[in-house]
Amino acid sequence: MEMMEDVVIVGAGIAGLATAVALKRVGVRSLVLEKSQGFRATGAALTLSPNAWIALDALGVSHKLTPVYVPSLKAYVTDVSTGDVQQVFFPVTNNGSTGQGVRTIHRKALLEALAEELPADSIRFSSKLAAIENQEQGGDASIVVVYLEDGTTIKSKVLIGCDGVHSVVARWLGLAEPVHSGRSAVRGLAVFPQGHGFKQEVHQFADEGKRAGFAPLNDRELYWFLVCKEENMTGEAEQIQRQVLEKYAENFPPVYLDVVRHADLSILTWAPLIFRPPWRVIFGNLDKGNVTVAGDAMHPMTPDLGQGGCSSLEDAVVLGRHIGNSVIKSGGLIVPRDMAKAIDDYVKERRWRATLLITGSYLSGWMQQGGGKWWLKFFGDRIFYKYLFGWLAELVRYDCGKLPAISS
């Protein structure tokens, strides 16, 4: 079977669905290809900072989530070995206007809020990418041909890879594979049927080579995590939970251990933390003609600033803005040769922003889990949380802009 589409997006995660919504807002139809049989909600939950809410405002979906999730105004960071507690206040404003603060939300809720904005036939599940081919059409124009494993051939004027850290599209562009950070993470939800009793505040616990924490999602559920140096946690969820309790967090405060004991084992996950080194984003091929990448396919990063999902939403709005402006100038048409310039402009805008976020996330993680060296501990306790953390937090005060308005 052969199909023709204006835009094909590979991956129905946050970046893919948000990009499809952004394109719909500017009058461009896209087809989203997802290799799984349904939406993947790996990670259970995520934290969205003010920059993400600005992007969701531009996409027209923030109003679905803000009534459900309450912002957190501060976090408590406890040094497990000394008992010292640092307070960290979260930003609640952006560019002088009232922002949405920092909210921890269910990943599935975000995916569903985005998917509801799209026509039912715009997402095709069980569609695994097999190969990509670029066909020249004469002049500067080209068409991308996507081959699926089920034998389907799709010709498209634009191809956007939102297919995660091991992106097929990124590999086709020539981007080097992400590398391991030397750390891994366990993530899950804790469920307290009678209520957990915590205020809407984030709690983190730092020890030598380990960091853990939890944040309320609502009155009964908490998102929790543990990050440690690279370990091979194998086995079922119950075994991973036992390792956290008995090996990795055995000296952590009882309040954290109780949260882990209440874990919903059906969605508990373990995964190594990987990232794309910043110089590979600076010098890498992030686009080729009318093909590009967004989200983790472009800039996988460690979760230490909580910017993976946030930056994916930024990507969607920026890409939608450049493609939308090009389409408006062309009288509502997608002109392949014009798409190459729109995509190149998108890459130029996102390249350094992504590099900064990757670098800031890695440095934040290294500082918080750098080990037991006295000078590093002193630097972290006396300088990092008091000064540098605030500077890194400024990265979330970012406005990705708005989508262009199209005439009826």
UniProtKB/TrEMBL annotation:
Lineage: Eukaryota, Viridiplantae, Streptophyta, Embryophyta, Tracheophyta
Signal peptide: none
Coiled coil: none
Domain FAD-binding: 6-326
Database matches in Pfam families: FAD_binding_3
Keyword tags: Monooxygenase, Oxidoreductase
GO MF, any single term: FAD binding
Organism: Dovyalis caffra
Family, similarity comment: Belongs to the 3-hydroxybenzoate 6-hydroxylase family.
Keyword Oxidoreductase found: yes
Keyword Oxidoreductase recorded: yes
Protein name: FAD-binding domain-containing protein
InterPro entries per record: FAD-bd (IPR002938), FAD/NAD-bd_sf (IPR036188), MOase (IPR044560)
